Amino acid sequence: MPGQLKEVRARISSVTSTQQITKAMKMVSAAKLRRAQDRIIQMRPYSKKLSEMLQNIVSGESDVEIKLAQARAEEKILIVLVTSDRGLCGGFNSNLIKTVRVLVKEKYQAQADKGNVEIMCIGKKGMDALKKSFKTNDAHVGLFGKLSFDNTAEIAQEMMNGFVSGKYDKIEIVYSQFKNAATQIFEAEQFLPVPKSAPKASAKGSTKNSEFIFQPSKVELINELVPKILKTQLYKCVLDTNASEHGARMTAMDKATENAQELLKDLKLKYNRARQAAITTELTEIVSGAAALEG
Amino acid sequence: MTLEILTPEKKFFSGDAESVMLPGADGKFEILKDHAPLISSLKEGEIRIRQNGKDTSVKIKSGFVEVLNNKINVMVEGAA
Questions:
Q1: pLDDT class of A210 with cuts at 50, 70, 90
Q2: Which residue segment(s) compose the domain that B10 sits in?
Q3: Is the distance from CB of A57 to CB of B38 less than 8 angstroms?
Q4: Which of B8, B39, B40 lies nearest to residue A235, judging by beta carbons?
Q5: Where are the domains positioned within chain A?
């Protein structure tokens, strides 16, 4: 009996310290989540203004030849997977990885059989999981530690160069859209060639448009603007994933803290029961010992 | 005339200005009050903002400027 008592006591202290850790991690994630959300909000006016400007330029002009929007036969595919560098965030990374696998299976099986599907990983977890089953490109690990627009812009440039030089015919990004702390939407988005479905500017845009002076020409402006928008798009994907990661971790750690609480309750009950049993046995022994002496 | 400088990381500048000198792709140019609507690309360089007779200079990376109804929007990839 005393042996069991000690065992339960040890477990209680171990669960308590685990709970302390999960609680702390939850707090840290909450703070980081707020920062990540701020970043998304800060970026919004810039990206909104850029796309407004594109509409201003494009409206009126019917067919502008944009190098980055030319669709080709889809032979060589690059999938960019954005995951986190660290674990302990529930099913977050495995869901992202699953999204990639499903995407390849459904859309690019033929290319994959020929070994023409390449994966570029932003974030360590995706890299670890996929380097065995796919051809992985040099990964960008540790980006989230020093997350900045310049860093992601470099990667976006690399992707655009790959597309222009014909190394890849199509590029898709798999990332997690941030909805709120508890929900993430795992999504694949076509990055290159630029999808043509962009809605044409409304009538009010085109009347304004005629008055603008364009410097240099419209075509040149568009060809400069599109890469900038793409860079912003990748930046947005990375920021969204970053925020989602912290959201997912926060939820996971909250759940873990709750579970630890429940476990502790059970253990305490068990401990008290064991203690009571030990006392009862001891008492019985004393009483029967005394009775034997008297007898 | 209001001027706004936006970068992907933050709103870098927002306020009134009397004149703004910008590093356009075809050369430097200055924007004064009641400038015609304009969209231009910018190259790396510096923006000079004149406020109350005093000049401030901002180093920028490449980007764009849009001028409309005495409102200047500058979108650049980085500013310092």
A1: low
A2: 2-76
A3: no
A4: B8
A5: 29-251
Asked if pLDDT for residue B67 goes beyond 80, the answer is yes
Mean pLDDT of B25-53: 90
> Chain A contacts of B7, Cβ < 8 Å?
46, 149
CA A152, A155, A159, A165: dihedral to nearest 10 degrees? Answer: 140
Mutate: best of B14, B29, B66, partner A, most A CBs <10 A: B66
User: In this structure, what CATH number is given to the domain that contains residue B45?
Assistant: 2.60.15.10
CATH 3.40.50.300 fits A29-251, yes or no: no
Q: With a cut of 60, say whether residue A285 has pLDDT above it.
A: yes
- ipTM confidence: 0.86
Give the contacts of A81 (CB within 8 A, at least 6 positions apart).
A96, A97, A100, A119, A120, A121, A122, A123, A126, A130, A173, A174, A175
Lowest mean pLDDT among A33-37, A94-98, A194-198, A239-243: A194-198
Contact B47, B23 (CB under 8 A): yes
Residue A207, classed as helix, strand or coil, is: helix
Q: How far is A220 from chain B (nearest CA, A)?
A: 9
> How many Cβ pairs closer than 8 A exist between chain A and B?
80
Contacts of A235 in chain B (CB under 8 A): 8
What mean pLDDT is reported for chain A? 86
- Which of A62, A9, A39 minimizes the C-alpha distance to A244? A39
User: Is B8's CB within 8 Å of A43's CB?
Assistant: yes
Q: Which residue of A has its CA nearest to B25?
A: A216
Give the per-residue pLDDT at A64.
67
Partner B contacted by A233 (CB < 8 A): no
Cα separation, B29 vs A273, in Å, equals 85
Are the Cβ atoms of A212 and B39 closer than 8 angstroms?
yes
